[in-house]
Amino acid sequence: MCGRFAFHSLDLSTLAKAVHQHDLFVDAEPRYNVPPGTLISVARRVAAEAPVTIEQLWWGYQPYWADAKAPQPINAKAETIATSHYFAPAFKRHRCLIPVDGWYEWLNVDGRKQPHYLTRVDNQTLYLAGVWTERGDDKPPGVAIITEPARGTAREVHDRMPLALDDDSLEPWLDPHFTEREAIRGVIRHIGAELIQHWTVSTAVNRPGDNGGPALIDPL
């Protein structure tokens, strides 16, 4: 799954190159412990001919047409997102990217949960595939991060991981012209498993919020 992440570099250069734009930047502060139920930086294209924009959207997905008591998931499974009544409309029309530097998972060690930080070995930005939906009542749109079965060393920490896309997949993922599942599958690839590394970090990250700053991602 993906329930906490860090985005501190604010570097969107790979995405800017992929979508042929020079004006992509993040109007936000570096964050080292981003929890659900907060505003996060999201890249999306709201119409077929519109430019890619970076906006602050809500991490929690609840469509405006859903009952008020409907769930507000933060993740969606890659295996079922295209056929799920809850997510399928967004998968077809409202795909987005969530830039992060890394994410956290917790490994049970002797009855205690030890946090690990997972990131790219080359320190490049990770672009996580997501979907967004209008929430209504003047609320900012809500977002869910897509997850897939864990690969490579990520499997040592958790059985699932966020779907991080390779550079060539960024533009087609944001292209509203792709609406059918098989067409999307044909142009989308996740990054290689060999690009992911992880290490243990302080349990200070267990407290949601930006506690500790850069020290939160330091290896123990």
Automatic annotation (TrEMBL):
Organism: Salinicola acroporae
InterPro entries registered for this protein in UniProt: SRAP, SRAP-like
Cross-referenced Pfam families: SRAP (PF02586)
EC top class named in words: hydrolase
EC number: 3.4.-.-
KW Protease (keyword) present: yes
Protein name: Abasic site processing protein
Family, as annotated: Belongs to the SOS response-associated peptidase family.
